[in-house]
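G., the chain you wanted modeled:
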Amino acid sequence: MMINRLKSNRLIKSIYVLLMTYSLFACKKKNDEDSPANISPTTGTRTEFTLDSIFLYAKEIYYWQEALPDYATFNPRAKYAGITPDIYAFQKELYDITQYKLNANGFPYEKPISGESPRYSYLENKNNLSPAYASLNMGTGSTNQIQNKTIEFSKVGYLYIDAFKNLNEMKAKLDKDFEDYATTGIETLIIDLRNNRGGTVETVAYLANLIAPSSFNGKIMFSELFNPILRSGNAKILKNQLYLDENGKPVKYNGRLATLADIDFSEAENIEKFGKIGKLETVKNLYFIVTNQTASASELLISSFKPHLPVRLVGQKTYGKPVGFFAVNIDKYSIYMASFLLRNADGWSDYFDGIVPDIIVNGGSSGAIGDPTELYFATVLKDIMMKSGLAANRLSLKTSAKIYSNRTISDPNRNDQDIPLIKKHFRLKN
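Predicted structure as tokens:
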């Protein structure tokens, strides 16, 4: 349960739907199906109710919820209510929640890179919201970057993307670029993800369908596996969360506004299959330029093609994030808990420690992004030439790059700088 505000020192348990901001203050709610150990107090301060809510949502939507103790054992009020300011208390609670589930090596799946910031999950203050994935500015990059080229010697295209923004912000430009690729008839596509820390599921799927030939139609691209409570439709607490579409608008469902409890989280309804978009039919090989900054949605794109096309990675081991998120709103905070596992057509998802490159390149960029003589790009071209039996002097530099760039990502509420893999479009129950 959650509260909107305290009135006359009476603590109110109810839901306030804020249509002006398209958000819902979720509220802790006693559930008749809860065991006594999972029922939280009905009185308390605003901070205590928020602490309760973070834990109770985790018990139902966190991917590793089975590792969590019951409410009475966890006792969030006793552990965190004395921490000030409140946001430190909430961050500490979320961190502790994420450290319960251990991997085969005995370490938490969300073991932090440094400090006490979970590897994946996090929270943001909605009143001072600056989510990394929303702060991106797709543009043409700096003036020294090479634009509008295509490598002629073996029909190679190069595409640099450093964030998967919302699809409506990227669609038109991607469509135009892939029209150009189709005209050229490229057979090898180099996708430079060295600085791409993530973005939205929908944009990754759209790009994959631009790349894939129509012969892939109906084949599995990836699937999303939620925890058993979500899959069975028993996450009752989600009735307190308004379901918003990709544009942040409430959705009508059976004559009322839909909530997250109306989503079909079943395994069968969360399989993404290829469905060709555009005219490009000639891609036979994919190269990805990657570093330890390559995370989340970028790794999903790589994983999705591994069962279907020859894929080679050049650079450094990726970050390692095969999990995705959807937001829940608790008082003035948006909470992102790792909520689903991402698997490719082979069922592979084991890259929590990152995806290892086929060709290791160390160090930073040696030139402008998109310049064929730049270290990472040149390494890919060298490998292509070797596989094609071409000599270095056969390479024409009269060709090219299509570049998407963004301004510096900065979010004061986060210690790391990766962008969460956010899912915004869901299927509602029939």
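Residues 1-33, 129-150, 395-400, 406-417 have pLDDT under 50 and may be disordered.

Shout if anything looks off.
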